[in-house]
Design brief:
Blueprint (H helix, E strand, L loop, with lengths): L2 H10 L3 H38 L11 E5 L21 E3 L3 E7 L3 E9 L18 E8 L2 E7 L5 E7 L11 E8 L2 E9 L6 E7 L12 E7 L2 H10 L4 E6 L5 E5 L15 H11 L19 H7 L4 E6 L6 E11 L2 E12 L8 H41 L9 H5 L9 H54 L8 H32 L4 E4 H12 L7 E5 L6 E4 L1 H18 L5 E9 L2 E9 L33 H11 L3 E6 L5 E8 L8
Parallel strand pairs: 1-3, 1-11, 18-20
Antiparallel strand pairs: 2-3, 3-4, 4-9, 5-6, 5-10, 6-7, 7-8, 8-9, 10-11, 12-13, 12-16, 14-15, 15-16, 17-19, 20-21, 21-23, 22-23
Helix pairs in contact: 1-6, 8-9, 9-12, 10-11, 11-12
Amino acid sequence: MTLRRKLLLVALCTLALPVAGWLYVRQMETLLREGQAQALVASARAVARSLVATHAPLPPGGAGWYVQQAVNPITVDGYGDDWAPLTPWSQALDKRGKLLLAEDADWLYVYVDVRSTHRTRADAADANALAADHLILGLRKDGQLRRYLIASSAPGPATARPLDPAVQHFPEWIATQWQEDGSGYRVELRLPRSLGLDGLGVGIYDASAPDGDPQAADVRPLLGYSRELSRELAQLAPENVRARVLAPQGWLLARSGRMGNTAVPAGEQPGWFAALVYRSLLANQLEDAEPWTDDAPRLDVHEVNAAASGTPATLWRQGEGRGSVVLAAAVPVEQGGKVQGVLLLEQASRAVPLLANRALLGLLATSFGVLLVAGAILLAFATRLSLRLSRLRDAAERAQANDGRLDGQMLARFPMTDAQDEIGDLARSFERLFEVVGGYTDYLRTLASKLSHELNTPLAIVKSSLDNLEHALVDRDALPPEAAPYLARARDGVARLGTLVRAMSEASRMERAIAAAEPEDVDLVEVVRGCAEAYRPLAGTRRLEGLLPDTPLRLHCAPELIAQALDKLFDNALSFTPEGGWMRLSLRADGDAAEIELANQGEPLPAAMQGRLFDSLVSLRDKAKPGDVPHLGLGLYVVRLVAERHHGVASARNLEDGSGVAFTLRLQGMPRQRL
């Protein structure tokens, strides 16, 4: 835990008294709200029972189709442009379509939108119309039902054909409009309101999924805003209360009353600080007022759904004015043990109960003010202390360069070494430590180059001395036969020692070059393919196969390093592959990494060497044949360095069939540099 958080916890201990007052006031407010909510629920239950007792025109129970009021003239053309204001309250038809109903003074309009990408077309008059995509329109009045078939082989006007015998007052045919697009089709029609329909049903049949009844229609009662029910509700609802009757699905059936002015008078409004404290720390959660707007034809909220299931519910929501709240109560309207609707009452609260006790609020505000001041002082002190420690940490991290050495310039300006407190002592200790470690690190890093430089001259002296000795003895014919092997061994030892000196110098140079390489985004397939094409002329009688993916493989890497590693692997494989043998270069993606594998025919790896192949100055070719040029043993070491530079790993294994060896280069990619 940081120092800042520890000091903050100390400051929070002073919250004991304000928290106790806060709990008391919150409990008091909760009791006041519960009492007001119970009173409003009791009023709503009384109004709901009165609606049932007066035989108000309540809707039948169960699901129904809601008919909205047309807000603009509707032209029956099948395109649905006139339905845009009503579209947010469309009703689902099965899983493939939606239904919209609207009415004006003369007509009942029906709009069906079906989503279907595969369609089978036929006119309603065709014999196979029931096997094609179609709609079934069901009309019900006074318990009598008649169904109509709606289908069309082309966009434009269409006629709905009756499926049932003639019924009095029902039309023999219905004019419709059928329009299509790539996502489905739309059907629009209108019916005279003089029919007096009390139920309507629409069924969708999809020929591509013939799993339903082609003549079925989900006939439901028609629901809509009732002026008669609104008049009954106006006589029963309390004053200064807005009342609404909703269907169990939340559709608006009737409304009456007004909540009056919900805003708190200007002289009684709490100040901004008191209101902020109340809303942030004390007040119960308030719902947004937007879903409760009066002009929406449907109110789909949790409280209405709960009342539709038979459980009364209440909530507090924001009012229209500053500092005002509204209490809403939803109760079921039941008749015969069946929920036929939901009664919703809304009552405005002109003032927040808690803010009436201004003395208590002032005490709380003062307590919180003192707490904020004390917390701010402790937080400022902790912040300053944390920033100083962060500066010291950042300086220690920046003192190390990318290649592991210590930055001398950074050490020269190590921060806070002049401070006379404990942090200053720590900074000075860090500075001295870095100086000692930096000197030792520099000594170790330059040891190889120093040794190679210092040993070159003695080696040259020994070599020249051996040459002079041999020439002198040969010229005088004084070289004993038994001394020749010893002289040859001395020459071989000098050569090997010279090889080691050159290897140390070369390894140091290559490490610096690999560490300084700049990454870029490249297609690894093209890099490997280019290398493979360059190797084929060098393979001689050996066969080189390439197994590369067909799609690009992007990697953030240094392509010149990867090519250098492949050069080393190819040189190694070429040395151990017999004439007429094979080599195989492959590339594949493995998750977020890339794997490059070069396999070759040849002798298997010795078990004792498999764990040391990628170390510096290790080679199997040193003892391959007498008289060979000494090998530095840096090729596979370079491969390992390249793999580690790309956050990967290099490995070698014997093939399962014993025919050769495979070297694998697994690359994760180099880190991206931040600008």
